[in-house]
Specification:
Strand order of the largest sheet: 3-4-2-1-5-6-7-8
Largest sheet: 8 strands, mixed
Structural class: alpha/beta
Strand content: 15-25%
Number of helices: 15
CATH architecture of the largest domain: 3-Layer(aba) Sandwich
Helix content: 40-55%
Shape: globular
Oligomer: single chain
CATH superfamily of the largest domain: Glycogen Phosphorylase B
Radius of gyration: 22 Å
Amino acid sequence: MVSKRICMVVAYHPFLDARIFRKEAKSLQKKGYHVTMIVPKKNGYLFDIDGTPFTNRFRNKVFTHEGIKIVTYNWETCRDQLSKVLSDESTWERQGFTNQLTQLAIQENADIYHTHEYLSLFAGVGIKRLMKKRKGREVKLIYDSHELTPDPLSPRYTEQHRNKLKERLLIMLDEVDYLITVSDSIKSWYLSHKPRLPVEVIYNSPPLAKNYQPKEYNSTGLTVGYEGNIDDKKGMKEKMTAITEICSKKINFQFKIMGGSRYDNPFDIPKHLQRNLSLTGWVDYLDIPKHMKDIDIGWVDLENVESSLNFNYAMPNKFFSYLNNGIPVLVNKCHDMEVFINKHQCGYVIDKTNVTAQDYADVLLELSKNKTILKQMSRNGRKVMESLYSWERMEERLRNVYQQLLAR
């Protein structure tokens, strides 16, 4: 078989994004595909997962990283042209598809173009139409919808703006050959609008943690873990601090953050809590299991669920990361995570969408007295990751999507 060429088209994610680079691109490369990624520089630099610019590395316009070809472009020069998605469709080719992202991707002459955001989907529609017009080539287009854009409930958009975004989305979806998304509810939303669109759910789950040792829960204290960036707009730092304050007065309590603040917004831990609240800083994707060994419960808190279908439908990376390491999950009331936890008995859902630090602390203090329950939840979570949800299982789904497209 001639090795097929895949081009990942990225509008704003960091190029080392766990889903795009670590999982999908690397999995496709492993299966023998030639993979190129077209990725944005901001202010002249590629940027890390936490937003830190790479000032001393990855400076070339085109380079190879871990066997994957990386082609860079300047986001600032593309923004205005990509925003033409909201203009009349008759102007798209003249005013929108001239953007650098679309043009660089066309030069790769790939067989399948895999887009990851609303604006990279617009670039992808341009790629598909222009490849046919200029080269007479029918290429395949995947839209990997990490979330719903526009979010049907988000107050970020006026109703008029939301309707326009949605109307353009439905036009673009007619060009899509396969849609990939991250939760069953998001899949259902797309199918309610485009019943004939092929859709696959590929969860944001990690590869199975190696050297896994079942947790015994025989210590007296309790360690809560949080994986990921801390977005200060959500008041998350205050909530973490308050939970630690309340719990550490009653039990031997630790709050461990794997990740932390964005590089331009540091988390100053109050002095009196520095023995109870710790940040590892950014952790390499493959090292996460090592940092999870001492964690008893994983925390996911998504605020403003009532004004975001994305939050209500979310199945975030950290959710599966905890379960992968045999860590029960504590969440506020979000539909898809609640359904999953109830089905697999692998965590605890607080029956409120907006949960206070006191609410979380009350549940954590109660769970600290019930280690047998935590131990069973731990076993259940790891078991379902092994049998159904690990990246190795998701990789099979990804491979099937690609095989179906190339067989057409």
